[in-house]
Specification:
245 residues; mainly alpha; 0% strand; repeat; Armadillo; cell junction; cell adhesion
C-alpha cells in the first residue's frame, strides 16, 4: 500500500493529477463531497449511519488516501456537518459520527477544530452530571435534556464518544482545557467508577483520565477530584484484562 509522501496537509493533494478510475473512486478524495451531501440533506437514519460509517472507514489509519480524506472533509466544510449530527436523536448515528470524528482528529488541524467546536456536544452525549457548570459558558440545551441525552446512549456509543475524546485531547492542551470546562471530567469519573458488564468503555475512559492527570498547571482538576481520578484510574485499569473479552 502506498503511504503518504511529503505534504503539508494544506496545499493541493499530491498524486492527483489524473482523475480517478475504476476502484480508485472508492477512496479518492472526490468521494467526500457526495457523502457530505447525504449527511447534510438526508433524514433517513440508516443512510446517515452508512454515510458517516463510510467516512469513518475512509479516514482510518495512516494510508495516504486516509490522510487525504481527512483533509478533504475539512476543506469541504464537513466537520460542522458531523458535529451537528451528534445532536440527532438516534443512537447508531451518534455512534458512527463520534467514531468518524475520532478518525478525523488524527489530522492535527481537524483535532484543533473538533476540540474547539465539538467538545460540548461530545460531552453532552455522555451519561451523568447535571451540566450546571456548562450553562454559563454556552454549553447549550437544558439540564433535563442533557441528562436524557446521556441516558439514551448505548455502551457502544459511549465507548465511541470516549475514544473521540481521548484522541481529541491527546497532546493538545487547549482541548484538554475545553474538556474540563465542558464538565467532561466529572462525567468521565462517573463512567470509570460505574459498574456494568461492558468494561471496554471504562478502560477507554481511564486512558482519557490518565491523559488529564499528566497535564500540568491549571488544567488539572484540583483537590479531591485529582484523588478520585487517580484512585479510579488505578482500580479500573486492573479490570482491563476482562475488558478485552
Amino acid at each position: 500500500m502506498p503511504y503518504l509522501p511529503q505534504w503539508d496537509g494544506v496545499g493541493p493533494f499530491p498524486d492527483l493529477a489524473e482523475p480517478p478510475k475504476g476502484i480508485q473512486m472508492l477512496w479518492h478524495p472526490t468521494i467526500v463531497k457526495p457523502y457530505l451531501t447525504l449527511l447534510s440533506e438526508c433524514s433517513n437514519p440508516d443512510t446517515l449511519e452508512g454515510a458517516a460509517g463510510a467516512l469513518q472507514n475512509l479516514a482510518a489509519g495512516s494510508w495516504k488516501w486516509s490522510v487525504y480524506i481527512r483533509a478533504a472533509v475539512r476543506k469541504e466544510k464537513g466537520l460542522p456537518i458531523l458535529v451537528e449530527l451528534l445532536r440527532i436523536d438516534n443512537d447508531r448515528v451518534v455512534c458512527a459520527v463520534a467514531t468518524a470524528l475520532r478518525n478525523m482528529a488524527l489530522d492535527i488541524r481537524n483535532k484543533e477544530l473538533i476540540g474547539k467546536y465539538a467538545m460540548r456536544d461530545l460531552v453532552h452525549r455522555l451519561p451523568g452530571g447535571s451540566n450546571n457548570n456548562n450553562t454559563s459558558s454556552g454549553g447549550g440545551g437544558s439540564t433535563n435534556s442533557s441528562i436524557l441525552a446521556g441516558k439514551t446512549m448505548s455502551d457502544d456509543t459511549i465507548t465511541a464518544i470516549c475514544c473521540a475524546l481521548h484522541e481529541v485531547i491527546t497532546k493538545n492542551m487547549e482541548n484538554t482545557k475545553a474538556l474540563r470546562d465542558a464538565g467532561g471530567i466529572e462525567k468521565l469519573i462517573g463512567i470509570a467508577r460505574s459498574k456494568g458488564d461492558k468494561f471496554k468503555r471504562t478502560v477507554v475512559t481511564v486512558r482519557v483520565c490518565w491523559n488529564l492527570i499528566e497535564w500540568k498547571g491549571d488544567i488539572k482538576p484540583s483537590g479531591e477530584a485529582v484523588v478520585k481520578l487517580k484512585v479510579t484510574c488505578v482500580l479500573v485499569s486492573r479490570l482491563s484484562p476482562q475488558a478485552e473479552e
